[in-house]
Amino acid sequence: MLLFVLSADSPSTTGESYRTMTLNPRSEKTVFPIIFAISLAHLLNDAVQSVIPAIYPILKDQLTLSFTQIGLITLAFQMTSSILQPFVGRYADRHPSPYALTAGMCISLCGLFILAYADSFPMIILAVSVVGMGSSIFHPEASRVAQMAAGPRKGLSQSIFQVGGNGGSAFGPLLAALIIIPYGQGAVVWFAIALIAGAIVVSYVGRWYAKILRNTLAAKAKSRIGTLSLSERQIRNAMIVLVVLTFSKQFYLASMTSYFTFFLIDKFGITIRDSQLCLFAFLAASAIGIIAGGWVGDKIGRKYVIWGSILGAAPFAMLMPYVGLYATVALSVAVGLIISSAFSAILVFATELKPAHIGTIAGLFFGLSFGLGGVGAAFFGWLAELTDITFVFHVSSFLPLLGIVAWLLPDLKKQKG
Q1: Can you say whether the dihedral through the CA atoms of 279, 282, 288, 292 is positive or negative?
Q2: What is the pLDDT along the chain (417 residues), one digit of tens a residue?
Q3: Exposed, middle or buried, 228 (CB in 10 Å: 0-12/13-18/19+)?
């Protein structure tokens, strides 16, 4: 999948300067209403998606599932969310689809209804797979829209877009604790309201997107070019480093989002409801931290944000398995605040390396995020079966140390000509 992106329209001669297309900040404006609208749609979409891990304790008890089966559910969801995304993004680069966002929401709605009435492990797998397919259509195009509306504030725009998703991921478990846990699995259907509202919002965004395409503003923007003094090999190496960083971040987040509640219940004996509230605190901190990452990245360069956000979370993550309940929650909040800024910085950094393929790059990194998260969830579920959930958190706490490889990234602020 990575080679598929790196080989697309790359210069054939090693050492040749790679010419990149950039927007002229003096002539391009940031369209904040569109950015906030697509962020709201991201919030609604991801709130529904976050219901899936939030109801794991209910599904585990009701269907007598094992930790391995819990991991396989996450794997099915994450893989269907990830495999299609680079191809959807590549298609969007060639054939922009203003109303693909609405289609993605409607497909997720179908999956949600299946999930509400699923009464077996195979039906749960089917339900989350359909939701994942809707997600794979939504994310590349939504990220592309955020980039088109960004003007000179690409980092801030992606952060606003991402914080919508993080906010949805944070509110999903909270709403699950308030709605689904008291009333059972069937209450999942109430989340259909969020997807219907999201479809209405993205239809407004789609009309703006279609107008931009009719006016060919995107084509005019691509006529203004700058230069990065990076060879094809340097760009490929930088992309590989970004993939390694995405791996470390998503594997660690997989342990938190899928098993943090089980860890708290097992170690401290708290209730399911209280564990969901603790997960909400972690995810809410992630939503808050992501905005600062985008703003700082626009100011000082995204390389330093990436390096500091992943490696900087390591000390807090490594302390978490050894402290009490309140300190564990406090450390999880610190980790969420720090590590959350990495993804938007990684995504914008990658699109600056390959600016003619924004949809493809967005699809690749969103796909990697979902796919690696799914593999991580399955792996940690298998590991929990062999050992115990506390051991999982001891192992996963070392993953942010891989953030050290961010130092190998080129400084694009210095490279731009």
Answers
A1: negative
A2: 444 444 444 443 333 333 333 333 333 688 889 999 999 999 998 888 878 877 887 888 888 888 888 888 878 887 787 777 888 778 777 777 778 888 889 999 999 899 888 888 899 999 999 998 888 888 888 888 888 888 778 878 888 888 888 778 777 777 877 887 777 777 888 889 989 999 999 988 988 888 877 765 445 444 444 455 677 888 888 889 998 998 988 889 888 888 898 899 989 999 888 898 898 888 888 877 777 777 676 777 778 888 888 888 999 999 999 999 999 999 999 998 888 777 778 888 888 888 777 777 877 887 777 678 778 888 888 898 888 888 998 999 999 998 888 888 887 665 554
A3: buried
Determine the Cα–Cα distance for residues 273 and 283; give it in Å rounded to an integer. Answer: 15
Residues 205, 198 contacting (CB under 8 angstroms): no
CA 75 distance to own-chain centroid: 15
Lookup result for tokens 């000390």? 315
DSSP state of 64: T
Entry pTM = 0.67
Q: Distance between alpha carbon 202 and the CA centroid of its chain, in Å?
A: 19
Angle at 133 between CA 129 and CA 138, to 5 degrees: 145
